[in-house]
Amino acid sequence: FAESSDQGALLARYHKKAGCSSVRDSTMKQLKRHICHVGAWVALLPSHVASGAVGVGELSPTKLLAQLLRRRGKTPLTPWLRGILHLVALRLHEVHSEGKLSSQQSENWKELKRALPRNVWKSFRAQCPVMPSDAA
Asked: Of 102, 26, 10, nearest to 64 (Cα)?
């Protein structure tokens, strides 16, 4: 994503393939694969890039991931998807503790947090206890 010459077009292509912009129904397997790709971008990109809107549709990787996760519904998570969403949860925790984003970027991260499956958060909290500096 970071090396793409047209990041907006790339996000729009994933948005369209996942069926977010039309009634066309993509297969759940394809949707999960797209969630893995976009989730990896969100987990690995700098936070301001992951939540920054680009292109005509003003999409950001965080916003697109939230839309894809809502589209997934309650279908079971694959091991790959669970692992990537765990990394996204780590990233959300990191971004929340930094607090250095614009209001729109912050809203994109909040939207993503609401879209993450609850069992991902439950597992994340069980594996990553609160650090002493966060408890204050």
From this structure: 10
